[in-house]
Amino acid sequence: QVQLVESGGGLVQAGGSLRLSCAASGRTLSSYDMGWFRQAPGKEREFVALFSASGGTTYYADSVKGRFAISRDNAKNTVYLQMNSLRPDDTAVYYCAARSPSPFTSSSSSYSYTYWGQGTQVTVSS
Predict the structure, then answer these.
(1) Which strand (E) or helix (H) includes residue 55?
(2) 22 near 6, Cβ under 8 Å?
(3) Residue 110 region by backbone torsions, left for phi larger than 0, else alpha for psi between -120 and 50, else beta
């Protein structure tokens, strides 16, 4: 079992930055693919970023590429999402999630993730 707790959300003006944290307990994160997802009101949950278990490969949704950066601190068993140049359409509840790596399922699909945090609200004002 993996317990995930997000923090760092809040209200920020367009162009600003936030850093989200996802602290894990129960298992070491280094053996899991770690993803960040977000869900805006009335919309489906969408993939934001991935930090893979093997080799630490990162992958981003086109909408955040060049603005967001995902990282992992193994000593703290924590994954981060640095968000820069925020826009109003980044407003959403952000979730971190963990899954055991698999070549048979997409790491950008929320359905392939087993463990989820409770989410943290990010609001970007124009």
Answers:
(1) none
(2) yes
(3) alpha
Give the number of residues written for the chain: 126
pLDDT in the model for residue 47:
98
Helix (H) or strand (E) holding 21, with range, is strand 18-25
CB neighbourhood size of 90 (10 A): 22
23-36 burial code (b ≥16 CB/10 A, e <16): bbeeeebeebbbbb
Residues in the chain, pLDDT under 70: none
Q: Under a CB-based contact definition with an 8 Å cutoff, are residues 7 and 121 in contact?
A: no
Enumerate residues 6+ apart whose C-beta is below 8 A from 109: 47
Give CA separation, 64 vs 23, 50, 69, 70, 113, in Å. 22, 12, 9, 11, 20
